[in-house]
Design goal:
- By secondary structure, this protein is α/β, with parallel strands linked by helices.
- It folds into 2 domains: 15-253, Aspartate Aminotransferase, domain 2 (3-Layer(aba) Sandwich); 255-355, Aspartate Aminotransferase, domain 1, CATH 3.90.1150.10.
- The protein is built from 9 helices and 14 strands.
- The strands form 4 sheets. Strands 2-10-9-8-5-3-4 form a 7-stranded mixed beta sheet, sandwiched between helices. It has a 3-stranded antiparallel beta sheet with strand order 11-12-14. Strands 1-13 form a two-stranded parallel ribbon.
- Strand 3 (92-97), helix 4 (100-109) and strand 4 (114-120) form a beta-alpha-beta unit.
- It is globular, with a radius of gyration of 21 Å.
- The two termini are 26 Å apart.
- The protein binds pyridoxal-5'-phosphate (PLP).
- The site of pyridoxal-5'-phosphate has 11 residues, from helix 3.
Length: 356
């Protein structure tokens, strides 16, 4: 049976990336050594890292004001590393609380300074994005989560603000062309659109660094990582390598314009099907729907388990909603083929014809 991988992360990767990475585990580029065996300071790994960095710069069209880092950890590490580098104890940071991940980020920031939740959509279970909030001028930065993986909402137009904009782009990075230079800091765990778990991409505008008086542990200090060229200590070599291959694949396939075209084809098919079948119950505000993670419910709650059972039986992997939300979540990251969404929609229609 053909499997369709809708996992929310770690998630589906492009087949050519998997093939290349498996070859490299045995013999990296004809060196006779595995990618897992080469030193991180060798010219071999330098080439990998430099290609990864230059691919990010190319895809994001960044100017020299920005640095690209590949750092250990997941996005959760950045929840703490961002405020540690940008906030002094008496400073205030503004956070948008639009979902579980943004809320966790704000909680971590409160360990380092004051947090002003300038907007929260928890009143309606995070089913929409509030765009009518005001960011105080004295905030050191405004933090948003561009795509709420768990709740299925996404910013389609970023907030205008005079303070530096910081974004967790973990679940929609490289899915569409964006004016990345609107942001002063962008971070993303690699394990959705960019590669294997274990590495974070951090893109930082240099001018926002070096403005606080707190002592920052060396391994947490962005400035020190910039000086060391992402090689302060042993980086997650294999995870960086897989990111490099995935970035190479995105470029070869036509870059972010092409990724967006594919994303729109998949998400519009899914949402059109969803809206046409009353047996399903979408709760996210239409204008804020995520193009990466579609979250919805069954109109009759007792049909949830039968639908999820049918999905399992038909090889639809990873479509059960997040444990605190329930329902169904269909993740449509870059590497997911349109055929998988077509197969899922056919299954929805089949289910509706039996139970609707
Ligand atoms: C938007 C977002 N931020 C943060 C995280 C946490 O990432 P990690 O598990 O890499 O720490 C996730 C995980 O799915 C996410 O989707």
């Amino acid at each position: 049976m053909k499997l369709h991988n809708f996992n929310s992360g770690p998630s589906i990767l492009p087949q050519p990336v998997l093939e290349e990475a498996s070859k490299a585990i045995i013999d990296f580029n004809g060196t006779g050594l595995s990618i897992l065996e080469i030193g991180h300071r060798t010219a071999w790994f330098q080439e990998v890292l430099q290609e990864a960095i230059s691919s990010v710069k190319k895809l994001m069209q960044l100017n020299d004001d920005y640095e690209v880092l590949f750092l250990h950890g997941g996005a959760t590490t950045q929840f703490m590393q961002v405020p540690m580098n940008l906030l002094d104890t008496e400073d205030t940071a503004a956070y948008c609380d639009n979902g579980i991940w943004g809320s966790k980020a704000a909680k971590e920031a409160a360990l380092f300074g004051h947090v002003n939740i300038v907007s929260s959509t928890s009143d309606k279970q995070y089913t929409y994005i509030d765009k009518q909030f005001i960011t105080p001028d004295n905030a050191k930065y405004l933090h948003i989560t561009t795509n709420n993986t768990v709740e299925g909402t996404q910013w389609h137009q970023y907030p205008e603000t005079l303070v530096p904009l910081v974004a967790d782009m973990s679940s929609d990075i490289f899915s569409r062309p964006v004016d990345f230079q609107k942001f002063s800091l962008i971070y993303a765990g690699a394990q959705k659109n960019m590669g294997a778990a274990g590495v974070n991409l951090v893109v930082v505008k240099k001018e926002i660094l070096g403005k606080i008086s707190r002592s920052i542990p060396t391994i947490m200090n962005y400035q020190k990582h910039i000086e060391a060229g992402s090689l302060m200590n042993t980086p997650p070599v294999f995870a960086v390598y897989v990111s490099m291959l995935t970035l190479r694949w995105i470029l070869a396939e036509g870059g972010l314009v092409e990724m967006e075209k594919r994303t729109l084809a998949k998400s519009s098919l899914l949402y059109n099907t969803l809206d046409s079948l009353p047996v399903f119950h979408p709760t996210v505000a239409k204008e804020d729907r995520s193009q990466m993670n579609a979250v919805f419910f069954l109109s009759d709650k007792t049909l949830e388990t039968p639908f999820l059972d049918l999905c399992k039986q038909e090889g639809m992997i990873g479509v059960k909603g997040y444990r605190t939300v329930g329902g169904v979540r269909v993740s449509m990251y870059n590497a997911l083929p349109l055929e998988s969404v077509q197969a899922f929609c056919q299954l929805m229609e089949y289910f509706a014809s039996r139970k609707g």
